[in-house]
Structures are given as C-alpha cells and as structure tokens.
Predict the structure.
Amino acid sequence: MSKTYTCSGVYQLPDIVRSLLNTWPNERIFAFYGKMGAGKTTFIKEFCRQLGVETVVNSPTFAIVNEYPSPDGRSVYHFDLYRLEHWEEMLDIGYEDYFYSDNYCLIEWPEKIENLLPDSHVTVLIETAPEGETRFFTF
C-alpha cells in the first residue's frame, strides 16, 4: 500500500513528513530514492526538524554519514551514499551499528547498498514533474 503526495513548495513538506512519520511510527530506516536535485536532502532536513533536531542538517556527501542529536538523547543518522564506490565500504564504517541501533537512519542513494538494507525499512521515492517545480513523494 503506497500513497503519493504532490508538493508544489517547501511549505508543504511538514505535512508530508508528518504523514510519513504517522504512517510508520515504529520504523527507523528510511531509504530516499530520487535523481540528483530531486529534493532528498531538503526533505531530510524537514524530517529532522520534525524529530526535534536543532543542529544544522546538511548532506554528508564526503563524510558518508552525519549524526544529529535529538531531544530524547538519541541520534539521527543521515547517510549520503552518492560517492560510495562499492557497497563493501559500508562494512568498513560499521553500518550494522547504525542500522540496528534503533535510531533513525535516513539514507540518500540507497540503491548503492540495497543488499544491506534491513527488510524492515521504508522506501520513499521522490520524483520531479517535467517543469521541475512540483515534487511527488511516494511511500
């Protein structure tokens, strides 16, 4: 069962993120699929804001993973796997410690490590309309 949300501006992101969190309140692994420039990082920034993260959220393109503290004392892990050359690199950073920590893991470019994603994860597909302004979020 998937649903698609149409978004014509960032002002609509809070409602879409709330819907995502309400639909899967117990899930912690979220895999964000979309082309370059689709809005994955922008969506993740709002996702983190909804979780109460107060630090600056930015794409960990070169670091692979950023950790953000949440008000409940837990962590939110933000992965950007765009520069990952081989899925085995995730073994080197100890991905299991992140994925099985029961903390939120928000993954950009998950197609690079699909064989490592836990069965219990939420797929979020972000597509852009031909004119480039409207986004479609399917989860």
